[in-house]
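Worked example

This section walks through a single chain of length 242. The input is the sequence exactly as stored; nothing has been trimmed or padded.
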Amino acid sequence: MARAARREDLPEAAPLEALAPGGTWPHALSHEPMLRVSDVLALVQSQFPTLSASKLRFLDAHGLVCPQRTGSGYRQYSPADVERVRFVLRQQRDHYRPLTVIKDQLAALDEGRLHEPVTLTEIADAPDDYVGAAALAERGGVSEEVLAALVEAGIIAPTVPGGFEPGTVDIVVAASAYLAAGGDVRALRTLTLSARREADRATQAAAPLRRKAGGEAEAHAHDFAEAAIAVFSATVRRGVGG
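Given that input, the structure is written out below as C-alpha cells.
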C-alpha cells in the first residue's frame, strides 16, 4: 500500500472565509458523487460508531445531507457530503443540538454567514487511509500540474482536503500512460465517465445478491466489471487492427 499522508505532507485547507459562497458547504471539498453508503459508513463509523444506513436515510429525509441518486435510486455521496454528515453528528454528540438548529447552521454555512474550518483530524486519526497530493503525483508518475488538471476535470478527487485514497494511484498511473500516448484530458474524462457508468451497472447487477452470504454479490459485481473491460479492450484493439 502507498505510504499514507502525514499531517506535514498535506497542505492546509483554504479558509472558507476566502472562498466565494456557492453551492453547499464545505465549498473546499469535492462535490462529485463518488461514494456509496457503505463507503460513507467505513469513513465515519470509527469516529461515530452508531452511524448506520438508516441514520443516513434519516438525514437525507430531513434535508440535512442530501446525496445524489443513481438512475436506479441508489444514494451516492461526495466528500463534501461526508463532512456534512460529520458536522451533523458532532453537533448532536458534543452540543446536543436539535436537528432544526443544525439545519439552520448548515444553511448559514452554505450561504457564507457562518464559517466552520474543515480540518485534517480524520487523516491524523486514520493514518493508513490517505495519500497527499505530492506523494500521489510522484507515485503516479505525473507532475503536480497534471495532477491538478486531473482533479479539475473530475477524473480524480480528494476525499479530504489535500488527501486522496491510496487506490487513486492506479487511476493516476493509467491516466499518465494515456496522456503520454497522445490522449488529452477531455477525452480521458469521457473514458472515466464511461468506466464509472459500467461500475454502476456492475453494482446494480449484483444488488439482488446482496443479502446472500459468502461474497456472492461481490464476485458477481467483479465478474460483470471484468466482462465490461474485456468488451472495451476487444473493441479498441479491433478498431486499431490489433
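What to look for: The chain is about 55% helix and 5% strand.
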